[in-house]
């Protein structure tokens, strides 16, 4: 079986028109819209749907709040899809549409689906970076960008009440691979058919941070851009369009090395531009991060109060590939 990534995200929102404008300004290409939904399509062939949270097509799950209310995962072959459906059907209801999309609820209550998906090839040409003594661009300016156009959906994050139990479901029933484990924060998981460091982050819904209330909620989705310039052009343009600013600005995570900028999103939670993340394969050795803030950021533009004091350095390799029990 091979899940190759996110085929589509379905947002449940309270204002379709407002959220459609937001995602257009964010850089997603609008394919079609009417009063009941907006549909965006990315270069890789994945899609984003925006519907009313009261739309009958939004699954009636345990999840609360606005945001992504259904994730359709792309599966590489019909055989793999059939095998996943047969396995899941052993202990839960799986409905299969006329187009072959299978829908079910995870053990934790998330509305997931599976659909055969072939990613379209995409083209990116990040400009080579210069450093003193290492000239990769001579007499060649960097390309001037005017807008951000995310080409991929890199990952999705949910706050999950029993995130370790839900992690076991993702690993054992859907084949996700452990990439990293951040104590008390969450587990980073990679769909088995992709090299993205993580496709899914199961966060601890009871983490003592704002927005976490112990309930199953959408947290954020990450959209991939080419490089730092495209990321920051996107952030600048969102501010020019009058949308709320990022709380911390630009930063680089330590845990997957990615450049990030999170923006508050009217469709729920936050939306993240991402670039220059780690790509890993089955030889990757997962790590555990006992000091969550050390994992969170290598650096950040606007230091929040919780990072004023630099966190201590600590991480360990999980050479047995298993999440340790914490006392
Ligand atoms: Fe993220």
UniProtKB/TrEMBL annotation:
One Pfam family per UniProt: Glyoxalase
Domain VOC: 152-276
Superkingdom of the organism of origin: Bacteria
Record InterPro entries: Glyas_Bleomycin-R_OHBP_Dase, Glyas_Fos-R_dOase_dom, VOC_core
Cross-referenced PROSITE patterns: VOC (PS51819)
Listed transmembrane segments: none
Name of the featured protein: Glyoxalase
Organism: Pseudomonas gessardii
């Amino acid at each position: 079986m091979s899940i190759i990534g996110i085929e589509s995200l379905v947002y449940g929102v309270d204002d379709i028109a407002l959220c459609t404008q937001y995602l257009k300004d964010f850089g997603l290409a609008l394919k079609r819209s009417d009063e009941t939904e907006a549909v965006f399509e990315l270069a890789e062939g994945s899609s984003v749907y925006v519907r009313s949270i009261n739309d009958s097509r939004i699954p009636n799950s345990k999840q609360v709040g606005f945001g992504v209310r259904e994730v359709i995962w792309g599966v590489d072959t019909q055989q793999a899809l059939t095998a996943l459906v047969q396995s899941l059907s052993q202990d839960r209801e799986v409905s299969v549409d006329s187009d072959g999309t299978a829908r079910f609820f995870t053990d934790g209550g998330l509305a997931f689906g599976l659909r055969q998906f072939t990613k379209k090839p995409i083209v990116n040409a990040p400009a080579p970076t210069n450093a003193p003594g290492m000239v990769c661009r001579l007499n060649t300016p960097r390309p001037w960008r005017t807008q951000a156009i995310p080409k991929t959906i890199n990952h999705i994050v949910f706050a999950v009440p029993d995130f370790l139990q839900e992690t076991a479901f993702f690993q054992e029933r859907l084949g996700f691979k452990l990439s990293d484990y951040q104590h008390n924060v969450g587990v980073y998981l990679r769909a088995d058919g992709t090299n993205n460091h993580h496709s899914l982050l199961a966060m601890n819904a009871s983490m003592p941070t704002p927005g976490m209330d112990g309930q199953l909620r959408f947290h954020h989705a990450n959209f991939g851009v080419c490089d730092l310039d495209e990321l920051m052009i996107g952030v600048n343009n969102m501010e020019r369009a009058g949308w709320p600013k990022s709380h911390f600005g630009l930063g680089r995570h330590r845990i997957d090395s990615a450049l990030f900028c999170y923006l508050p999103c009217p469709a729920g939670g936050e939306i993240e531009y991402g670039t220059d993340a780690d790509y890993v394969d089955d030889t990757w050795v997962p790590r555990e991060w006992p000091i969550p803030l050390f994992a969170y950021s290598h650096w950040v533009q606007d230091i929040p109060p919780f990072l004023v004091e630099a966190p201590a350095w600590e991480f360990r390799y999980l050479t047995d590939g298993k999440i340790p029990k914490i006392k």
